[in-house]
Structure formats: C-alpha cells, structure tokens
Amino acid sequence: MKLVYIKENACVECKLCELACYVEHSPTKDILDAYEMQIRPLPRCEVDVELPYSASIMCRHCIDAPCLTACQNGSIYRDERGAVIVNEKTCVGCWMCIMMCPYGVIKRDRRHGYFGISTKCDLCPERETPACVDACPNGALLFDDRG
Amino acid sequence: MRYVIIGNSVAGLSACEAIRANDKDSAITVISDEPFFAYSRPLLSDYITGHVKIEDDRFHYRRAAFYDNLNIERMLGKKVRQVDTKNKKIILDNEAVEYDRCLIATGGTPFVPPNLKNSDIEGVYSFTNLTYALELEQALKIAKKIVVVGAGLIGAKLAEKLSLNGFDVTIVELTNKVLGLALDVPASSIVTGQMIKAGVNVITGDSVSEIMGTKKCEGVVLASGKKIECDIVVMAIGVKPNVTIAKASGIAINRGLAVSETMQTSVKDIFAAGDVVELYDKVFQMNHPIPIIPWASVCGRIAGENMSGGYKIFEGGFPVNSISIGNASFISMGYAETPEDCQEYVNDKRIDEGIYKKIVVKEGAIKGAIFMGEIERAGMVSAMIKDNIDVSSFAERIVEDGFWWHSLERTLREKLTRRV
C-alpha cells in the first residue's frame, strides 16, 4: 500500500496541508463553502512545530494497528487499500483508539451530538493522491509505497 | 479440525477472526449463555439511558453479517457446564459438542462480597452484561432512588448517567476517592466534581454493610451506621474472572485462568483469553487479570493464531483505561498514585479547567500516567510502556502542554516512524 511519508527537514510550517485536508473532508470540497461551514471538518493532519523542527503529522496506518484492536464496537476497520478507517456512523467516542495510538494522531470531535467521533487520516479515499500531499509546496509530504 | 469458542464477546470473536484468516474450511462454533449477538459492554450504561438501542449497529461488537461472513456456527443461550478434556467434548446441559481445539473466553463475573446481608433480595442488581442490564431496565421503570455500590469505571459512569436521566442516585465507595485504581487524588477530585454536577450524591470512605428489606430492597445501611433509602442497589464493586467452567474441567487457575504467553492453558488444545485469564503485567511485574477490551482483543487474536497453526506470543500488558464522566475525559495507565521509589512529573497549571497530566517514572521507564482533559497524546505514552522506551532524557516534556513528536529526540522519532 501507499502511505504519506513525512520529511521533517522540508516542512515550512505553511499549514496548507491542514487547509487542504479539511476542504477535502467537507461536503462540497469547495474552499469557501468549507470555510463558512458552521461545524468545519477537523484537519486530520496537523503541523507540529518547535523550531527548527516542523512536520505535518498524520496516521501511519500501522500494519498491526493498535487502534483497530482497541475499538469497543468494530468502528475501526481496514479498507481494501490497506488504510485504517473510522466508521463515523458507529463511533461512540470512547477514545480507546487514542489510548493505544503510538503517534497521538487521532482527534476528538465532540461537536456532533451525544457521541463523540474519533477523527483521523483516511488517506483521501476519493483521490489518487491525498490532498495534503498535493497541497504541500515544498515536497515535505510524499505519497509512496510502504517500504 | 473443529474449533469451539466458549464466549461470544471480544476475545472469542477476535480469536474467530484470527482462526478464519488461517483456516478457511474448518468448523468454528461459538457458544454463549447469553442469547444475543456480541455487543459492546461499555455501552450498557448508554443503553440504560436510551442513547443506544439493541438493534443499533453501534451497540454491536461486530456488524450483523459477521457470523455468516466467517461461517461461524452459533449456539447462543446455552450454558456450558464443563469441558471433558480427556474425550475432547464440551458438556452442555442436554448435549455435548466435540472439539479439536477449544478457547475459553468466558469473561468476568461481578464480585459481590459474601458477607453482605440480603444481597440476594429483589432490587439488587449487577451491571456487567446485557442480561443484567435488561433486568435493571425493567426495575428502573418504577424506581426513583438508586444506590450504586463501588465507584469504579462501571459504577461511576452508570451513576452519572442515571442521575442525568432524573434518578436520585447515591454512590458509595469504600476507598477515599472515586475511580481510585485509575486516578490519583487531584484527578479523582475533578471526576468527583463532575459527578456532583450531574447530581450524584458521592459518599467515599464508607461501604454498604447491609441491604435493608425482607423481600424487596428498601435501602442500605453503611458501615458508618448511616442509612439510605432506595428502591434499587446496583453492585459495581468489581469483576472477577469467570472461571466456573475452567474449575469444573480441572484447568489450572491462579488469580485468573492461567495461560502461557501463547494463551495455552494447562491442558493441551485448550486456550483461553479475555477477562477470564491472568496476564503478565509489565508495569506491576506480576500476573493478574487485566480485564480491558484492548488486551482481550489482542490475546484473543494471539490464541486464535496459535490454535490454527500460527505462532504469536503476548509480551505483557498493563492496566489502561479511557473514560468520560461529564466533561472530564481521561486516559490513565499503570500506577495512579506515585509509589515511593518512583519519580513523578506533573502538569497541573490548568487544573481549574479540568486539565491535569502526570507520569510516573522509575529508572527511565514509565510506570504510570494520567491524562485528564487533554488526552490526545496518551497513546504515545502507552506505546512507550509497551516498547520499553527509556524516557530519562525527556520525561518532563511528556506532561508539557503540546507534547508531541517535536518533544522527542530525532532518533526516537525516526524509530517511531519506522515501526509502521
């Protein structure tokens, strides 16, 4: 499978990856529509900065994914591409996936009602290359075969 | 090959998945005394308050087509009495099922103190499975006042939810703090605050010594002498391994059903996993039951792999919990209170906002952690325990606001990235 590889020396902390991510995960995928949404999608990648370090960080889609085995109701599964996906329709926001994620890359979205939703990178199932990779102006994110 | 799985929950079904991945043809039978599809136990209190229904996908551990897709035969609502280990037969009430390899995944059973007077009268409930939850649901149709005994994970969550649903709820906890095994004093105070805010009457440092009533529960008497009237008592002191079948079958039991690192019991071809077993705890450095979903799933998978020709071992677990009470979401693991021979790193700068972080370290190894309010990076810490990472050089950074990949040395960052 292909994975987004993070090159920390190339990141210029412009955060275009975060912008591209939430636009891609909005209903119309239009930047202005997405910006004006009352509940804007959370970006699934996030730029972590402590200069001189900066990098955009997102799910590593682990081969033996601890989030998947920790899930209390089968809401995390592996799709045909090999990506680890949260079923947002059944997730109950118990955060047991967060409890086991070695990378700290799962976010809590508590803006949608009684149950919270674990939100993480889905490798953009509707695109050939994830939006963050296409948006990066400096080649800090590479979509490449898992080596 | 014929596989029989006793228990229809996390460990049992995880084993089924692993077996089916290795063996497409052999018969797999799942037997359970409860008649239901496997469900998500942490959602029982949300079921009680009407936020999830039995037919909802999210209430189930796997989706409806699971058993058919994996070609699993179900024998639900049937009680196993014993495993005839000599003749390789599972003995049920009026029938027997042959097996070549068997998994005991019978889970836990509620602990009720043997000396508690009247604990068997009407109006006293346990709350560890759906059968109990359905009984409690019926009783709640006429009840108004409820006493929950034990402020552990199950009791605290149930008390909060019932109180928010309009019941008059008192929770009685023997130790001096709620969620005492999972939280230290400052973190526990935050949760207590949330429970009080939800309307729960929280009593700590006291215990129920007697249930009042002759046929039906009328209230409880506490060790301090105090009396509380109530219609219902929910016993939530704790869960112990459900070793009834193992015991009747002559399989070795210590604190829980004893298993090797491959999840094999003392008897050949009989494996065990889930809340029924004792596991090696790499924080506390001993074997004991660690009844949580992640290890049940991991060990069920390991058992299934080893039952079907593969080889995998369990390298040890540790207690780790994630729960929300009101606005207080927390993840904690290992030691909650800092032992004398350990060092603690605390960030309580924003404790007034309900944000509190602590790690417990001994000789460079993390022995415990509490993340309250901001929990997103807690998994990095559980992974560090799992992978025996030496945190000596950056321990204080783990509790800092914004702790993430930048807080790690480059070599560790690269190691983490490579483990995909």
Of all chain pairs, the largest interface belongs to: A-B, 44 and 46 residues
Q: Superfamily at the CATH H level of the largest domain in chain B? A: FAD/NAD(P)-binding domain
How helical, in percent, are the residues of chain A? 10-25%
Strand percentage of chain A lies at 15-25%
* Count of runs of 4 or more consecutive helical residues of chain A: 5
Work out the oligomeric state of the chains in this entry. heterodimer
Low-confidence stretches of chain A: none
The CATH class of the largest domain in chain B, by name, is Alpha Beta
What is the element string of chain A, with H for helices and E for strands? Answer: EHHEEHEEHEEHE
Average per-residue pLDDT of chain B, rounded, comes to: 96
Give me the Rg of chain A, rounded: 15 Å
The gyration radius over C-alpha positions of chain B equals 22 Å
Number of domains of chain A: 2
Note down, in words, how this protein is organized.
The complex is a heterodimer of chains A (147) and B (420). Chain A is α+β, with helices and mostly antiparallel strands and 147 residues long. Chain A folds into two domains: 81 residues, no CATH class; 59 residues, Alpha-Beta Plaits. Chain A is built from five helices and eight strands. A two-stranded antiparallel ribbon of chain A has the order 1-8. Chain B has three domains: 176 residues, 3-Layer(bba) Sandwich (FAD/NAD(P)-binding domain), CATH 3.50.50.60; 114 residues, FAD/NAD(P)-binding domain, CATH 3.50.50; 92 residues, Enolase-like, domain 1 (2-Layer Sandwich). Chain B is α/β, with parallel strands linked by helices. In chain B, helix 1 runs parallel beside helix 8. A five-stranded parallel sheet of chain B has the order 3-2-1-7-18. In chain B, strands 9-16-10-11-12 form a five-stranded parallel sheet, covered by helices on one side. In chain B, strands 21-22-25-24-23 form a five-stranded antiparallel sheet. In chain B, strand 24 and strand 25 form a beta hairpin.
